[in-house]
Amino acid sequence: MSIELSSRRRFLLDSYLGMGGIALLDMLTADTARAAGTDPLAPRGQHLPRKAKNCIFIFMEGGVSQMDLFDHKPMLTRFAGKKIPPPRGTVGEIATFAAAPNRVIPPVAGFRQHGQSGRWMSSLLPHMSKHVDDMAFVHGIKVDNNNHGPAVYHTLTGSQFPGSASVGAWITYGLGSENRDLPGFVVLGDRRGATIGGAGVWGNGFLPAAYQGTLFRNGGTPIIDLRAKTPAAEQRKELDLLQWMNRRHIAGRTEASELEARVASYELAFRMQTKASDLADFASESEATRRLYGMEDPMAEPFGRQLLMARRMVERGVRFVKVLHGAGGDRWDDHGDVAGRIPKHCREIDQPVGGLLADLKSRGMLDSTLVVWLSEMGRTPFDNNLVTDKPGRDHNQYGLCVWMAGGNVKAGSTFGETDDFSIRAASDEIPMRDVHATILDLMGLDQDRLTMLHAGRYKKLTDIGGRVIREITA
Predict the structure, then answer these.
(1) What are the φ and ψ backbone dihedral angles of 300, each rounded to 5 degrees?
(2) Any idea what DSSP says for residue 390?
(3) E strands within 80-132?
(4) Strand, coil or helix: what is 67?
(5) Which of 69, 138, 231, 356 is 20 to 30 A removed from 428 (C-alpha atoms)?
(6) DSSP-assigned letter for residue 424
(7) What is the DSSP string of 270-298?
(8) 214-216 and 430-431 strand pairing
(9) Bridge partners of residue 407, in order along the sequence
(10) Chain center to CA of 29
(11) Are strands 54-60 and 369-375 parallel, antiparallel or unpaired?
(12) Which phi and psi angles does 58 have, rounded to 5°?
């Protein structure tokens, strides 16, 4: 540590200004880092002129049944209880399931058309149905694996194998963050348990460690010890000593991104304690806002709390918020009793999601916020268990449905179509990398410029490259 730097810090920390001195020190440190180009989360410009500056990424874990929510298929009712006709173009488990004895399961609820776009939606989604003219749907997306773990990795990192960077890490790497008092990439977990794949699905992979997601708990205390127990001035002195020791260790080492991320995390934790401790305090939110998110309904309240927190975060400049729904026995993995489980899932998410879209729109934030809703796979229209009186649906890597809203999304549009039984795309299949390319484009990032040299080649989220789905972009 230089004498000049040491003297400056001592002056600031010991002066009568107290917290004002600490704030000044923080600003000086930040300004110096940004000027030197060493702040990994400094805001960076978009490659492409796009409206969206932040992203709320809503992930339904377990494999959502597309034909029970968004993909209206009258043939399922016509063939109810009968064996499905042989589907074309499927291989692996889906082909085996379809060839074995099976019975078609009709939708668990009726469908109606909504909005000027005439979008068919399940009657189980009355709140989301009000916003169909703000949404764009993509049907018939194919993921590379028919099992949960690899499919979750594929949809959230672009690869079915652990070790790749997640969507949120790529976007934060490309754009930085607009708020230095909160992480640039936040994950809001389901209170009922851990996600499949663990922290790897919001990890940084081969990107610098600063871009990994930070998990917040669902509840009144999203981060343990968020409220400081030590006076700020004393904490600042302890951190300065720790930072000096860490920086001394880093000097002369070329591969130190994890330690550098840890150093940055100490500083971030300090700023969060001093400036962001009220994040989970909803006292400032009106009763009408809390009702909008369904927080008066015990079943909807937990997810409503997550989405309200997500809105508060993007309002404060957090770049990417991933919101998880479904854990343990409450995942959307409905192999049995689909008629009983789907209504429960929908009640948990419908009003919160509809409330989020309404809230963003009323605050003028929908244009600057990209909302993405997806799962890791779709489901089959049939069941192979012919003896149960509570049938369910199996995994279907060919039938994923995704919707987006906000920013430069072409509101009310649809791209892709599945066959008569919602098994796979009716024509050309849509690879997941096309969805990732579209998300990056909507955030103002060019997939071919957003790269990282790793293991001798330039890696990117879309790997060999994806087609931006211009049919759903404005």
Answers:
(1) -90, -20
(2) S
(3) 103-104, 111-114, 119-122
(4) helix
(5) 69
(6) S
(7) HHHHHH-TTTT-GGGS-HHHHHHTTTTST
(8) unpaired
(9) none
(10) 31
(11) parallel
(12) -100, 115
Token digits of residue 428: 């050309």
CA within 13 Å, CB half, 98: 21
pLDDT of residue 237: 72
How many Å apart are CA 287 and CA 419, to the nearest integer?
A: 45
> HSE-up of 129 (CA within 13 Å, CB side)?
16
| Integer Cα distance of 256 and 334 in angstroms | 44
Are 173 and 201 a contacting pair, CB within 8 Å?
A: no
Do the strands 395-396 and 103-104 form a parallel or antiparallel pair, or are they unpaired?
unpaired
What integer pLDDT is reported at residue 29 of this predicted model? 39
Which residues in the chain land under pLDDT 70?
Answer: 1-38, 218-230, 232, 254-277
CA torsion through residues 118, 72, 323, 261, sign: negative
Name residue 471's beta-bridge partners.
none
The model's pTM? 0.85
pLDDT digits (tens, 9 = 90+) for 382-433: 999 999 999 999 999 999 999 999 999 999 999 999 999 999 999 999 999 9
- Residue 320 backbone class (left: φ over 0; alpha: ψ -120 to 50; beta: rest): beta
Amino acid at 120: W
CB count within 10 Å of CB 217 equals: 13
Ordered by where they begin, the domains of the chain are: 45-226+279-472 (3.40.720.10)
Task: Work out the widest C-alpha separation in the chain, in whole angstroms.
Answer: 82
Listed in sequence order, the residues at least 6 apart from 402 whose beta carbon sits closer than 8 Å to its beta carbon are 137, 138, 141, 372, 373, 374, 435
Please give the Cα distance from 424 to 101 (Å, whole number). Answer: 20
Helix, strand or coil, per DSSP, at residue 405:
strand
Q: Are 322 and 315 in contact (CB under 8 A)?
A: no
Cα 260 to Cα 196, 250, 318: the distances in Å are 28, 8, 21
Structural contact between residues 289 and 359, judged by C-beta atoms closer than 8 angstroms: yes
Cα–Cα distance measured from residue 234 to residue 19, given in angstroms and rounded to the nearest whole number: 11
Query: Cα(340)–Cα(319) distance, rounded to whole angstroms?
Result: 37
Say which DSSP state 163 is in: T
Cα angle: 74, vertex 120, 116; to 5 degrees: 140
Q: What is the pLDDT of residues 329-342, one digit of tens each?
A: 999 999 999 999 99
Q: Where do the H-state alpha helices sit in 316-431?
A: 338-362
pLDDT score recorded for residue 471: 98
**Which residue is it, tokens 């000097």?**
251
Torsion of CA 21, 27, 33, 37, to 10 degrees: -170
Query: What is the predicted pLDDT for the residue at 31?
Result: 40
Spatial contact of 236 and 210, defined as CB atoms under 8 Å apart: no
Instruction: Please state the φ and ψ torsions of residue 395, each to the nearest 5 degrees.
Output: -65, 145
